[in-house]
Amino acid sequence: MTPRSAAAPFFTSVFVVAGAALLANFLSTVIADVIENATAKFQEVGKKEVDLGALGATAAPLLSWWLLGVAFGRLHEGWDWGTALLFAVSATSSIGLQALRSNDDASLLFCTLYCAIGVPLYTLVLGRFSLFIVERALQQRQRQIRERAAKVVRDCSDEALQDMFSMYDVNQSGDLQEQEIFMLLQQLVRSPVTEGDAEFMVREFDTAGK
């Protein structure tokens, strides 16, 4: 791509960064559904929570790398700020959207090393950003699951609750074991809970119809 105006490089740089962020958001939403089915296994290998501090620490090397690319464009190639910034960002995100205009060996060698290191670095930051979004999505999903289960329990009468718990008390010991609680919760959150669902359970389990 060859910019035709002074504003074009700045617009393209912002467009590339914003587009990558939107793509990461979309992919993380899709990946969240896959991760949800493997959450237990994911926790067994020791998942570490990704916070803003870790995300910032990961992004710092990429920002420093972009500054290096801008300095190369300004000092060695003699580009304006917009073209230098476009090269710095595009060379790591798309491997050469803004191509070099010079043919000297030093420029070609620098560009080769810049892409070889910058592209994996950019991918790493993008991946950590996706994990940050997925982490929040999984936490929200867990809250929704607990709220659904609690809603069903709150809207049932005492007699309905006794009948419901007794259905999953396999050995009829009077106490639900861990596996039995798991089956109960799994049934409660199998589908979205509505007011009609709660009323149905009350009618089914409460002989007094209350």
TrEMBL record:
InterPro entries membership: EF-hand-dom_pair, EF_Hand_1_Ca_BS, EF_hand_dom, K_chnl_dom
Superkingdom assignment: Eukaryota
Source species taxonomy: Eukaryota, Sar, Alveolata, Dinophyceae, Gonyaulacales
Keyword Transmembrane: yes
Any Pfam family matching the protein: Ion_trans_2
Domain EF-hand as annotated: residue spans: 156-191
GO molecular function, one term: calcium ion binding
Family annotation (Gene3D superfamilies): 1.10.287.70, EF-hand
The species this protein was found in: Pyrodinium bahamense
Protein name: EF-hand domain-containing protein
Family matches, as PROSITE patterns: EF_HAND_1 (PS00018), EF_HAND_2 (PS50222)
Ranges annotated as spanning the membrane: 52-72, 79-100, 106-134
Keywords: Calcium, Membrane, Transmembrane, Transmembrane helix
